[in-house]
Amino acid sequence: MMGNRTPRVTIWNEYRHERAKPEVAKVYPEGIHQALRSGLTPYGFDIRTATLDEPEHGLTENVLNDTDVLLWWGHGAHDEVDDRIVDRVRERVLQGMGLIVLHSAHYSKIFKKLMGTSCALKWREADEKERLWIVKPAHPIAAGLPEYFELEQEEMYGEFFDIPDPEELVMVSWFEGGEVFRSGCTYTRGQGKIFYFRPGHETYPTYYREPVVRIIANAIHWSAAERGAAPQFGNAKPLEAIRGQG
Amino acid sequence: MMGNRTPRVTIWNEYRHERAKPEVAKVYPEGIHQALRSGLTPYGFDIRTATLDEPEHGLTENVLNDTDVLLWWGHGAHDEVDDRIVDRVRERVLQGMGLIVLHSAHYSKIFKKLMGTSCALKWREADEKERLWIVKPAHPIAAGLPEYFELEQEEMYGEFFDIPDPEELVMVSWFEGGEVFRSGCTYTRGQGKIFYFRPGHETYPTYYREPVVRIIANAIHWSAAERGAAPQFGNAKPLEAIRGQG
Amino acid sequence: MMGNRTPRVTIWNEYRHERAKPEVAKVYPEGIHQALRSGLTPYGFDIRTATLDEPEHGLTENVLNDTDVLLWWGHGAHDEVDDRIVDRVRERVLQGMGLIVLHSAHYSKIFKKLMGTSCALKWREADEKERLWIVKPAHPIAAGLPEYFELEQEEMYGEFFDIPDPEELVMVSWFEGGEVFRSGCTYTRGQGKIFYFRPGHETYPTYYREPVVRIIANAIHWSAAERGAAPQFGNAKPLEAIRGQG
Amino acid sequence: MMGNRTPRVTIWNEYRHERAKPEVAKVYPEGIHQALRSGLTPYGFDIRTATLDEPEHGLTENVLNDTDVLLWWGHGAHDEVDDRIVDRVRERVLQGMGLIVLHSAHYSKIFKKLMGTSCALKWREADEKERLWIVKPAHPIAAGLPEYFELEQEEMYGEFFDIPDPEELVMVSWFEGGEVFRSGCTYTRGQGKIFYFRPGHETYPTYYREPVVRIIANAIHWSAAERGAAPQFGNAKPLEAIRGQG
């Protein structure tokens, strides 16, 4: 990607709940994307935003080509995301763009397409406590974090979470109602590095919480790191003599 | 799946090359599926076959519901496989059907859909030698195998192979022309266990070779093993009292 | 190992608490090893037991050579296990003997030696509830299990658990007091397959519980499976001509 | 570890062959450690060296406490490394020091202790060609590398390599004589990040080769990255009320 260049981040948000539901607007008056932008700005990223109702959902070829890491928050309108834009995002991921999938975006078209599974899970909205335990403190996404942190009120997501085994499992959540969840999971697809991060229900101020913002900032750095050469595919000449060919 | 029941295997073959190309017909006169059937029969499986040009490609709901493990060989006609059948197969895999993906089926719709990547690779047809090294001898798919085995002539597949990191890497190939390849790779998707196995170009008698047949038989047993309970998804009642809810 | 032969199981138990502490003797009057033996017998294994205070801790060369899978329960006397016996067990594991490490044996010499880490964790004895969630229902160790099961009273073990990343994470525990734990973890070392399974504090009747016994039986089958050829190490002749050597 | 601080690197070398064997002295007149130091200096690390025959092998408490990443090259004198120093190094790794294990150090006490396996392999000294293929180009250790690179003459190491499954497999080698090898492998032990890197036989100028030096520099950055909080172990108070305890 970019050696030591400042990562160029695009925060994509469905941005419907905030405009339609007063209880969400109260928490995120300018939208989840703007709250994330404010929280991440001190980390020194080059940030832009994009939303569902912009032309091409704000994800033009130009925008994606200028993006090192894409954040994705969606919930009620996954089906309204144009398949052509999904394919465009997927291509960029396979070529090396980072992707950070937030909360209810477990059910986004782009995440399901990259995972190959249903990405289904158990859920409950009951204002319950979540405690996230770091199970891989050596991982760069855990940099600077305490052993665990709590969110006083969150939506519950419970196992079985129908995802491929994470390459690295960074966090596991404990829920007051009795469930556990693999809450911080890394994947590689092509040259692209993907991080799924569970918290972030739209009716709670989760994205203003420091450990949450720090994790997302860590994941941006992790997924924006420089890559090896783009692979060559297709018919290949031999690098050594082959006997059968004289 | 089935505890100690005999695994019910369906061998799916595109079955076009064998009918159209004399050099392939010479090697597999009744089709690759029949050669595999003959080789696997002594292992005691309950085997049927299905091919592209049958109605519903031979993969009706009934056939899939009666299948514990599906083998898939395809090459030139991936695009002719009906998307509805692909979705049907995928559903069964997520519910626990095993899937063994053979050679050029790395580019099949079903494999790409379950992997989420391009599944692209390097290739060359040059009658060259392949030597497969077992790098995980403790894996059940390696049961009874020597440390390595050779195929005197095979098509070359070379890295970078654009797949997700295998959960378990069982075999790595050495090629005469200078490449290496991750040739035996396991994955889990939902309840389904998937094995990708590289060898098997249609112009070579690979599927008559003992180590090759043994590996496929091992993979059938591995992918047909009994599962845990089918997961429940969706809204879930709490298992413990939640304070906020009195 | 042994194809379809009945697995030969040796249950090793420290067997001190049961003789010294009335509250333990009440739960396991003949020792944890005998309780496990009784529970596992209906599964059709060929079982023997061994304990710390027998000569060579009951783990002679002959016993180990006749063992396909070794179960290990220890707690207060890890240091009394002779290093020569530990090395002997380790050699057999590397050569293909299965090893099932139970509860407080996370701190046994043999487990620490095979893991390379401290195997430290958080713990608490508070008669609290544990709920084990299956996070890999396709794994053979989960065969026949429900989505989760509960132990009304257990000792708590909490993260961070200082183990290498499991190859496969099969279970995650929820604890009433607020912690989570990776409770079912698989590893391969050499040709040996290892399963760490958390529950089993000596003051609770955990090893009489059906899901617990079933998991151990599943793990025995999983770790006893046939292997590939024993690897050859050391100086190796080339398999292909090397130019520099004319 | 250290956020954006310059990584403090200690290069440890057995430094015997270079003094005893003219054919090695010709290639590395000041020792492998000095060649590595020269190659790595332009990357801006804070580098020191240490060798076997210094007091405490040059690895005093102070030196290790001032080290973020330790490189280790050893071959003929593994047994002369004091077990107390090995334990000291291991403690620092578990607490978060990076460790880069080079070539014949696969058989070092420290690597075997951290892996838990024999770390045995096949080998051959035959001036043969090695070609290293990148199989995970998205990994930071592959940053800036081509798809593959060649070493005209190297010692052969061949599978089966008796190591635990790597967490991430970054490189696979092809050898002229017919073998393959997992040549770039990552592990986590405690808070420490470990990279095993195959090339580097003492009679070849491998450590002057640009891709080799770049890989080691990448691995230093990767293993020096900031960590999460140091875990707390031992008896832990509950974070939630436990019913049984009133």
Automatic annotation (TrEMBL), chains A, B, C, D:
It holds the Pfam family ThuA. Gene3D superfamilies: 3.40.50.880. SUPFAM superfamilies: Class I glutamine amidotransferase-like. Residues 8-222 form the ThuA-like domain. This is ThuA domain-containing protein. It comes from Cohnella silvisoli.
